[in-house]
Design brief:
The chain has 417 residues and is mostly beta strands. Helices cover 7% and strands 44% of the residues. The chain contains three helices and 41 strands. The chain is elongated and about 95 Å long.
Length: 417
């Protein structure tokens, strides 16, 4: 009788497992009949696309190319408009136009009003259109548009250059969802760079040389820049964050903010007026105002202006003022702001505002008021922290100098030095 050793058992098991594994992964070694072909899909199969040309998208008496069916379209070459023809007209919803790095330009002698536009019938159902990845150039006559929508359109715009156009992108009756846009205009007194109605979102974009850089209603403007515009942005019921506006134009306004808008973490440089507050309930928070005449100008009530920095508010006849509340502007809160090198610090014309925790000092002239409040203004203690002879006016008929060397632990003290 033979004894089976444990080594023999282990060896047998290993051989059996190897055999089973081999049979599990083995397959037929005879290739299928016929030639070997690729199993990969073409780009057209992955994303069916239609070239914009005279065969697929024939034009008419008013347009070079007309898109009348939903789908994804692309350019294979530049478009140069002729006569009064629009470059591309879109008459369908659910359309994507990829400019494919090409340019739509107005031809020499042409009177084309726009490069791309949609169905102008506002009675039709809402359209959804995407335009991306290319350049629009030369629609420069007053009233001309790079992209124009007068219909019920939600327009998505991505990675576009709109150069030398009287208007960049305008959506009259729907939201604009735009990012990666660069637009240059032809006039600092007319035309919008990027404009949309309720629900508009504009991000990571840059505009220059327009009457108004951006128009946003009930939406968002973020991480964007306006240079050399008569007005950087006009916003209503909108949130603005990480925005920058600058220009050397006389009379220029960085932003007009209306009705419950919020402006935060933004920069306004060399503006005649940084922000004009024209509607109730506006919040201006953590912004910087450099080298202008008026930083924040309040024309309305119930605003909060807090945590902002003002530098070099000195231009236009030595009348520079950091924060100015006009007659009729009341119930505003001006809190925890700071400024230096100005003509006037905080100047308030109407009673009923609240001023707390601000720090303004180093005015250009000791004879100018750092804080000018009418009777009826609520304010924290006003404390002088050195021997400056700068004055402070706390009542309409009670000027005075707070004694120097006073200190305080009052957390809502307004400081000047």
């Amino acid at each position: 009788m033979h004894t089976v050793t444990s080594r023999s058992v282990r060896f047998a098991c290993a051989m059996l497992l190897a055999a089973l594994a081999g049979s599990a992964i083995a397959g037929p070694i005879t290739p299928p009949a016929g030639p070997v072909t690729s199993t990969m899909k073409t780009m057209t199969e992955v994303e069916p696309r239609i070239a914009i040309n005279s065969v697929n998208t024939p034009g008419d008496a008013t347009t070079m190319f007309v898109i009348s069916q939903p789908g994804s379209y692309y350019l294979t070459s530049d478009i140069t408009t002729t006569g009064n023809k629009v470059g591309i007209r879109i008459l369908a919803s659910d359309v994507t136009v990829d400019l494919n790095g090409m340019t739509v330009r107005r031809g020499a002698g042409a009177t084309s009003s726009s490069a791309i536009r949609d169905d102008i019938d506002t009675e039709n159902a809402e359209q959804t259109i995407t335009i991306r990845n290319g350049t629009i150039r030369g629609f420069a006559t007053a009233g001309n548009y790079g992209i124009y929508s007068a219909g019920n359109t939600k327009l998505v715009a991505r990675d576009l250059f709109l150069l030398n156009c009287a208007f960049g992108i305008t959506v009259e009756n729907g939201p604009l969802d735009a990012s990666g846009i660069t637009a240059t205009g032809t006039s600092t007194t007319a035309g919008y760079g990027l404009s949309g109605t309720s629900g508009t979102i504009i991000a990571a974009s840059s505009v220059s040389n327009f009457g108004t850089g951006y128009y946003v209603n009930e939406g968002l403007l973020a991480d964007s820049v306006a240079t050399g515009c008569g007005m950087g942005a006009n916003v209503t019921r909108a949130r603005v964050e990480n925005f920058a506006a600058s220009t050397t134009l006389s009379g220029a306004v960085g932003m007009e903010a209306s009705a419950y808008s919020t402006v935060s973490d933004s920069l306004f440089t060399t503006m005649t007026t940084g922000i004009k507050v024209l509607g109730v309930g506006v919040l201006i928070d953590n912004c910087t105002f450099n080298s202008g005449n008026t930083g924040v100008q309040l024309w309305s009530s119930d605003a909060v202006v807090r945590n902002n920095v003002f530098k070099d508010m000195t231009t236009i006849g030595s009348n520079g003022v950091c924060i100015k509340a006009e007659a009729g502007a009341t119930r505003n809160v001006i809190e925890n702001n700071q400024g230096s090198n100005f003509n006037f610090g905080i100047s308030i014309a109407a009673a009923g505002n609240t001023v707390i925790g601000n720090k303004f000092g180093n005015p250009l002239s000791s004879g100018l008021a750092i804080y000018s409040f009418p009777i009826g203004t609520r304010h924290g203690a006003i404390v002088k922290v050195n021997n400056s002879t700068s004055g402070v006016i706390v009542g309409s008929s009670t000027p005075g100098v707070i004694p120097s060397t006073l200190g305080t632990t009052e957390p809502t003290a307004n400081l000047y030095w």
